Amino acid sequence: MFIVCGRVLKWLLLVLCGPTLVLAQTITAPPPIKLAMIETLSGPFANTGEAVFRNLLWAVERVNARGGVKLRDGSGTRLLSLQRHDNKGQNEEALSALKAAIDDGAAYVLQGNSSATAAALLDAINKHNEREPARRVLFLNYSAVDPVLTNEKCSFWHFRFDAHADMRMAALMAVLKDDPSLRSVYILGQDYSFGQAVSRDARRQLGLLRPDVQIVGDELHPMGRVKDFSPYIAKIKASGAQAVITGNFGNDLTLLVKAARELGFEGRFYTFYGNALGAPAAIGEAGIGRVMAVADWLPNVPGPQSEAFYQSFRQRFVQPADDYVHLRMQLMVEALVQAIEQTGTLQPVAVAKQLEQARVSLAGQTGTMRAADHQFQQPLVVGVMERQGNAGVKFDVEGSGFGFRVVKTLTAAQAELPARCNMQRPG
Prior knowledge:
427 residues; alpha/beta; Rossmann fold; seven-stranded mixed β-sheet; five-stranded parallel β-sheet; 13 helices; 20% strand; globular; disordered N terminus
């Protein structure tokens, strides 16, 4: 009797609840596509990591707002989910974060604020993808610009969306070479692979374009450990240098330019990141007409599409301290979504092959991926620091009252450099 009643009860539950259960299964959303950002979110460079997170978050929000990523493999439309992993500025922590991200189901790894960390992640991803083909991941790099990453160490699994150091240096040199008053420079940078690459290529390009310019100093300092750059500025002043070439970023840049202002250094700064994260406010009036910065895009790039793009970001992140937007990061996420949708699947090899052909446009700017080495090709601009309100400076940076006027624009073709890559592709 208990068996019969049990069967009757089970039948009644199926009759009464069956449609509800089916409906619940029908409306259950498919799992999101996980993007694992592995970045420094604590310590002296935490501000750079948080700036990256805001940019990637904004890109993900825009994709999800239009419905997400459309697939054709039966899984329907999927949203993007951005996962934060703090590497604490250490390669070992980054590798631990990579393992955690893969175990959590992330298929796409995003990183960029250290070329040394990027190299460590790239090596680990290459080994992982060979060892576990069923759980392969792609590495999308938005800022690690050591040229070796898409040259000698190029990988099918790695795509770089920032111009590498030699490309950025060439853009700066396009301005520097036309300054007839310049006779001496001092090269200063962070002592790791990227800083070494900047120093090496600065010497090479100066020798080619301005052999008359004397290099009166070439120095590397510990990354993220210098609290007072006054001794360095004192040496620069004593050398008689008229300009400084530096790839410094984060606190290593803001503290450097702050010391330059305090000690009255009047030379020019040719920088990779002088427009970023507190640098204009730190150098203040002393930077007007003297701080140069190269970027893939600047807020004062002329054109209605560019202006609308920047204003949309500022509406999303209204605090002045959050005012640091990277167009390339938006293009990177759009390129990934485009590759997935055109492939119709999340299968890593298929997505990578489609990503090799990426061509994306946003804010009036178009970039393409070069399949030979997975180096993104896009225009570059060089700006000079000026007071907001001056001609060409509608927008300032971080509420500082200072912005960057575009003085040089290089097309993607002009910014392109040859590759030294022997790409090994999966069969």
